[in-house]
Amino acid sequence: MKLNLMYSFLNTDLQLIEKELEQAIQSDKQLLQEASLHLLQAGGKRIRPIFVLLAAKFGDYNVNKIKHVAVALELIHMASLVHDDVIDDAELRRGKPTIKAKWDNKIAMYTGDYIFARAIELMTKIEHPDAHRILSNTLVELTKGEIEQIKDKFDFDQDLRTYLRRIKRKTAILIAASCQLGSIASGASKEVSHSLYLFGYYVGMSFQITDDILDFTATEEQLGKPAGSDLLQGNITLPVLYAMKDTNFKDKVLNVNENTHRDELQELIQYIKQSESIDRSIALSDHYLNKAFKELEKLPNNVAKRTLNNIAKFIGKRKY
Amino acid sequence: MKLNLMYSFLNTDLQLIEKELEQAIQSDKQLLQEASLHLLQAGGKRIRPIFVLLAAKFGDYNVNKIKHVAVALELIHMASLVHDDVIDDAELRRGKPTIKAKWDNKIAMYTGDYIFARAIELMTKIEHPDAHRILSNTLVELTKGEIEQIKDKFDFDQDLRTYLRRIKRKTAILIAASCQLGSIASGASKEVSHSLYLFGYYVGMSFQITDDILDFTATEEQLGKPAGSDLLQGNITLPVLYAMKDTNFKDKVLNVNENTHRDELQELIQYIKQSESIDRSIALSDHYLNKAFKELEKLPNNVAKRTLNNIAKFIGKRKY
């Protein structure tokens, strides 16, 4: 089953959110408008808005209220991608030039700041002190995660704990917050919100681990950027951490830097693909997914629960 | 009268705010902590917290509540300075190396993001929907101002209106918001908050114009960076706009870029200093100050009003 067929009952609401996203980044500054629109039109799975809407189905669902949360969370995700691409010197995202590549680092920095400010502005339409506290704590963790990503770059001595903490901050927390804020803003109970938070957290961990696996196993066409980009940018991900148990591989990978030749990188990718590290990574991803499924069981039965279950299954099996 | 003697009755509260600022930027990430502390310890006039506290005196003053607003606004100011220094390729601020100079642009970007996120987090301690809306609108304007600053760099054809709109967004709005949020958070009336907003806006305009004058008239020692830095970074300020009425000067200034030789820059600075452009700039600064004084007259008499009056007078006469 295709991802977008799982939540076709949300289509009208998701179209509304797409429109609101476009409106949110409108600016009288042509440069800002162009750069933000470029990013928006590059697409993305809109997984955070989808989680917000589904989580809101556990409370008093009102799309005209919940849309602000959905749009704000997607904007925060977008803003963090723009700043990430500066850190990673990334040229391509989803097959299109990044803002830093099409314009420059400075424009990227301020486009990120602008989108971020717009997100905060939208969230003020939600009058729920808890929601604001959760969102702002999430933002602090997110920035810490990004600083960790800078600090840990090309650090081949980091351990599994460092990796897991980093992807928690970088990815899982924002997905967890999407589920939590969707339910809180629609007045769901504390127990339901907490289970949805945990569900989002576990799914987010699995999602990022899968992303990190696909960076090696998917094709350039599927990725929208060359395979092995993470490694070339110095981001040491789970498959690399596992593969480094082999000292031969470790000796070779230690020499990787931004200028490593394509052939040399290909050799490392091949090693990772034929080693056990991909299977071990999938196992850890599955471990988090199982935890996610267990959290879901605690929730009342409804179409949103079934959909969250299907999306989680999809995330565990996705090929790109 | 020295600036800090004007508000000595706030000393205990300002010391508290200084402590809270240090606490706010504490992080388990050593790099973030060092970079943020470096910025904090480089000093600054803390004019935004001072305005927050004084404005709060028009309502039900409670330092343990209002401190969050004061700290949040100073943090937002700090975060915007860090990102500004990236845009301006600035090496020095207040006589100390900037974060981008001591570390690099990427660290500066994320240190700014982190301080910014911390500010938003602190503001959630204020349960006042209006305050959040005002702050977030301010942030959107602030980022627009910063994008304008990039776009307008080395654009010698910009007019006075472009300059005024830019300094409004870059400086005046945040000072206006400091006055407004201080009074709103302490429950002052709408009329009082509005007058304080306008007071802050006018003072902010005068403050930035004075800053732009001092960039030419003050010494390197007073500025903590070389004179003429704005011009060298391509920021076309009021004295330059006025001086360009002389076509001889305009012909010369058109050639300025980041690599312009010190002697050539000195010659331009000398021209500006001996021309009428400084006096005309002072006149426009005074024009805004007079408007600020007029707004103050509408406010009830108290020690805060007298202090705001004195600070505004000081800003009109300050030499650095």
Mean pLDDT reading of chain A: 90
CATH 4th-level superfamily of chain A: Farnesyl Diphosphate Synthase
Report the radius of gyration of chain A as a whole number of Å.
19 Å
Secondary-structure element string of chain A: HHHHHEEHHHHHHHHHHHH
Using a beta-carbon cutoff below 8 angstroms, give the protein chain pair with the largest interface and the number of residues from each chain: A-B, 39 and 40 residues
Shape of chain A: globular
Distance N to C terminus of chain A: 14 Å
Q: Structural class, from helix and strand content of chain A?
A: mainly alpha
Helix content of chain A: over 70%
Low-confidence parts of chain A lasting 5 or more residues at pLDDT below 50?
A: none
How many independent structural domains of chain A?
Answer: 1
Number of helices of chain A: 17
Largest sheet of chain A: 2 strands, antiparallel
Oligomer state of the chains in this structure: homodimer
With strands numbered from the N-terminus, the spatial order across the biggest sheet of chain A is 1-2
Strand content of chain A: under 5%
CATH C-level of chain A: Mainly Alpha
InterPro entries (chains A, B): GerC3_HepT (IPR014119), Isoprenoid_synthase_dom_sf (IPR008949), Polyprenyl_synt (IPR000092), Polyprenyl_synt_CS (IPR033749)
Function (chains A, B): Supplies heptaprenyl diphosphate, the precursor for the side chain of the isoprenoid quinone menaquinone-7 (MQ-7).
Cofactor (chains A, B): Mg(2+)
Enzyme class (chains A, B): transferase
